[in-house]
Amino acid sequence: MNYMPGTASLIEDIDKKHLVLLRDGRTLIGFLRSIDQFVLHQTVERIHVGKKYGDIPRGIFVVRGENVVLLGEIDLEKESDTPLQQVSIEEILEEQRVEQQTKLEAEKLKVQALKDRGLSIPRADTLDEY
Question: What residue ranges define each of the domains in the chain, with the CATH number in brackets?
Answer without folding.
Answer: 6-86 (2.30.30.100)
